[in-house]
Design goal:
By secondary structure, the protein is α+β, with helices and mostly antiparallel strands. The protein is built from 11 helices and 16 strands. The protein has a 7-stranded mixed sheet, with helices on both faces. Strands 10, 11, 12, 13, 14, 15 and 16 form a 7-stranded mixed sheet that branches.
Amino acid sequence: MFQVDRKTITFRHSLHSEVIDTLKHAGIVCLETADVLVSVISLLANYQEEGHSLSPDVFVCNSIRDLVQRVGTAEFVFLGKAPLNGGAAQRALKEAAPLATGNWAIFLERGSQSELHYGLFTGSTDPSALTLVETALETPDPAFPVLMARQLGPNRVEIRSNASRSRCFHFHGEEGSAHQGDEELASLAACIASGVSEELMSVFPGMMKRVLAEAIQKSHGTLIAVVPNSATAIPNVLHDMVVLNPIIDFAGRLLRHREDALSGASLSSLQAAAQLIQGMISSDGITVFKQGGHVLGFRAFVQSKPAAAGVVGGARTRAFQALSEHVGGEFSAAFFRSQDGVTKLKLSEAEPKV
């Protein structure tokens, strides 16, 4: 009888090896924790509940109470516990992922006696405040290791630690950096911030990036254009745009919030603007910013060339190409993010990349 040489090859072995190395670098030597994190990464690549895609941030720590104390303005809720093994990840995500929206994230606490405690925690709702990622991961502390797993896009997952290490995993065959999108988003936020007061320059780009990132994560595709500070009118290449009157001075609202000692009234104004911007970005068409931290309008469209035979890409891709032709003139930047996570940014030569 003819014998077939059969062999099953999986990505899990390489993933497990890299996770063990990252945990060791952070100060955690534990095969059970590695199994949990491997499962989290595998699940986050394309996680769904009831047919809806979910992309929660998942933090691994030794004490959620200590982590919340370090974050500052935060609170947490325990949801349950499970044996410290790979199966715990699926149980924790099943219960917590549908609730991990907005500022809420999932925590996995490595308890005693080989138990994993899990639940939700949240930071400040102030758009100008640092995120959980920034407060929990950007201060190295060998005595208090913290790791986070998050989906960067469909089939792309990143793990980061507060030991200054990041690893990204592709679950498809596309070439390119798994970090694709983060650098582009930072450069876009810096372009929008160009021209704000010196007082705001240290905080506004970060806030702008956070607002953009949250909106893009929820969107089925994004197009953003930035006009230069010198512009006195809406570029003629745009049409059918919903023009805001008055325009949203997002940077101005942040300045008032800081000058007003972070009052409730100024916070409400800043949050309202952030939510409105995120709604615009989630709409069809192009959201149009002006340098200096202003929002001019949304649902704009640009005339694009019909797709040539054999050319890959839909209407948003062609619209981005059309916008790109005017970058350096009527636009300082054009940004595109597809539903499947492909990210492109065209900057004017005058705008530095971050």
